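Hi there, hope your week has been kind to you so far. Thanks so much in advance, here it is:
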Amino acid sequence: MKNRILSVDIFRGMTIVLMILVNTPGTWSNVYAPFLHAKWHGYTPTDLVFPFFLFIVGTSIVFAYQNKETNAGTYKKITVRSLKLIGLGLFLGAFTLSFPFIKDFAEIRFPGVLQRIGVVFFFASILFINLGWKKLIGVSAILLIGYWLLMTLVPVNGVESTLDRAPNNFANWLDVKVFSTHNYKADYDPEGLLSTIPSIVSSLLGIFTGLILLSKQKKKATILFGLGGSLLLIGHLWDFVFPINKALWTSSFVLVTAGWANVVLALIYYITDVKEVKFGSIFRYAGANAIVLYFLSSFISKIMGMIKVGETSLHGWLFQNVYVQGFISLEMSSLLYGLSVVAFYCLLAYVLYKHKIFVKV
C-alpha cells in the first residue's frame, strides 16, 4: 500500500487485538465491567472497538483507492472483497462440528461482524471513489439525521416508536420481520439491517481522517485532536435526544466513537510519525493480517466451545483447570485466559509478518 502511515497500521492492530480480547474471556459470567458492552444505552471501552475498526477501514480506503479510476476493474475488486467478507461471516454463523457441518437453516445467524464490515466497505468505497469530500459530508449528514428521524418518528404497527429494547423499536422490529430466527437474539441483532446504515458513516468519518493524513496540512495531529474533540462534543449533545447505543448504532454513537478514534489515532500519529518514537511493533504485525486473525480467533473459539470434555467444553475445561486458581478472582482468571488467547494470535501475527505472509481477504 502506497503512502503507508505507521500510526494507521498500529491503530488497526490495536483494534483487532482488543476485538479478540473482549470476545474471548475465560467465562462470560465473570468479566470486568470495562470489557463488557453496555446493557443498552451508554457505552463502555468495549463498545468502542468495533466502530474503531470500521473507522480505520475508511482510513485505509483512502490509501487504497485514492486516484483510482472508476472502471469495471475497480468495482469488481471492491465487490469481490465485500462478498468474501460477507461469505466468511456467514460461514462463522453456519458452521457446526456435526455432519454436514452446517446448522439447521432456521438456526443460522445472517447478520454479523464480518458481514457488516463487508457491507460497510462496499458502500464506503463506492461513495469515496465517486464523490468529493464535500459531498461525502453531505451524505454522512443525511444518513445520520435520516436514521434519527426514522428511529424516532416512524410508528411501528401503529404504536409510537421507542428507543428501548422493545417490539416497537423500529430497528428491532425490522430485524425480526426480515431475518426472523436468523438474528443474534430473538428480538434484535446488534449488527442488524437498519443499524448498518449509520455504521457506513463510521467508515466515512475514517475516510475524512485518511484525507487529512495524506494532505499537505501541517500539524495533522492537532487537526485530528480538534476533529475528535468536536465529534465528541456533538455526539454527547445529540445523546440527550438520540441516546448513545451500540446495539442500535445510533447517530450519536457514530459521532462519539469516531471522536475517540480520532483522538487515539492523533496520539499514536504524534508519537510514531511526528516524534518517530518506536512503539507498538506487535500491533503493526497484527494489523497486517487483521481480518485473518479475527476470523481464526472466532472460528477456533467456536470450535473449542463445541468440543465436549466430560460435562463441559474444551474451552471450559481449559479455563477451569488452568486459569481458575484459589488465590485470584474469577474476573482476573477470565481476563488472563483472554490475554493468553491474545498472546497466541500476536505470536501468530509476528510469524506471518516475519515470513512476509499477508493474507488479503
Summary: The chain has a mean pLDDT of 93. The chain has 13 helices and two strands. Residues 330-354 form the longest helix (25 residues).
